[in-house]
Amino acid sequence: MNLSAPPDTLASNPTLAVLGFKRQLVYHLHFWAFIAVAPLVMVQWQQSHYLLSAMLILFCANALLVIGFLRLRDTYFLKGRLFPLLAVVCAAYSTHINGHAGLYWAYPAAAALFFLLPLREAIGTNIVFVVIMAVVSFLRFPEADFWRITFSLGLTCLFAMIFAWLVGKLQQELTRLATTDPLTGCLNRSQLADILNSQIQMRERYERVSSLILLDLDYFKTINDQWGHLAGDKVLTELALRLRKRLRESDQLFRIGGEEFMVVLPETRQKDADALAHQLLSSVSARPFLDDIKLTASASVAEVSKGETWSVWLNRADQALYEAKAQGRNQVVNAARPLPAIGQGGRAMPDSAAS
Ligand SMILES: Nc1nc2c(ncn2[C@@H]2O[C@H](COP(=O)(O)OP(=O)(O)OP(=O)(O)O)[C@@H](O)[C@H]2O)c(=O)[nH]1
Q: Kind of enzyme, top EC level (predicted)?
């Protein structure tokens, strides 16, 4: 059996990258725990500690299953629940029968729990663990040792908890930075394919139809030229605020280019998306930006069609936006619906002809 780590492949988006790192962490923890514990099965057996030996066999079997499932099925066997349970029970029982020789295993076990379980579960499990170890130490060792063990194990848990909490925060912050545009706080292109694909799946599986709107400011270059880049930035920030104000919580707002935005509207038909696009354009033109910068925008609307890929869907919207610009700007154009595929390729049909 090949026990090397699963291959590192480049993740297609930041969320998948974080999941990939977690997978590697779980894999390595189980792998090295297996290497460390497997010889102890024999040692405990030779010392006639059959129950402990059986528990360690279970621990090793679980480690092998987790490693195997990660490699072969890309899933996390029992979500790692057996590792903490067995580690806690084995460490406590081993301390009870082996004294200090068993106690040493409590420290790596306590730290490992923070990397395998969600933070709250790890804290709860470690509290139970420290209490069990305190009881075992109280029964097994002199009082001075009981205090030393309880406090040193408690401190180990505390340090591991702080570290795991900070790593979790760092992961969240890095994911946020990698998936959002720093100027406007909108989503950036990194998750665009995944989010459009999930809407396509809703369409294919449940007939739940989504639409998207592309919105692009008109003659934005002149704003930069006339008022400066900083004013241009402020206009973009205010635009994102105005758009967000009009959208629902479930809608997703992307900044996909300099002054181009995209809104993904789950469970929204073309007709409703078109009405919303008109309202968004009104929210741009109704009031000047930064008190006296008057602006308009152009938009396109595209409802997802059966069988199309996200790039075809986005491309149809792009073409319609191009038309809105070409037809004089400050207007909404509905994307052409694709014709049903004949043989290899279907051609797009204008919306008016489709309806
Ligand atoms: N201030 C600012 N300007 C940006 C940013 N990103 C892109 N731009 C500018 O946006 C302008 C886009 O210009 P064009 O693509 O010609 O589009 P436009 O002037 O809006 O013209 P139409 O789209 O054809 O109506 C360029 O001048 C870019 O420099 C940004 O983050 N901040």
A: transferase
Residue 272's Cβ-count burial label (10 Å; 0-12, 13-18, 19+) is middle
Nearest CA to ligand 1 atom 29: 221
Q: Which CATH architecture has domain 189-354?
A: 2-Layer Sandwich (3.30)
Which residue has 């580690």 as its token pair?
87
Q: Whose CA is nearest to atom 31 of ligand 1?
A: 258
Model confidence pLDDT, tens digit, residues 20-73: 788 888 889 999 999 999 999 999 999 999 999 999 999 999 999 999 988 888
Nearest residue to 280 via CA among 258, 296, 303 = 296
Quote the ligand 1 centre to 216 CA distance (angstroms): 9
Residue nearest to atom 32 of ligand 1 (CA): 233
Task: Summarize pLDDT for 108-162 with one digit per residue, the tens.
Answer: 999 999 988 889 999 999 999 999 999 999 999 999 999 999 999 999 999 999 9
233 lines ligand 1 (CB under 6 A): yes
Structure ipTM: 0.92
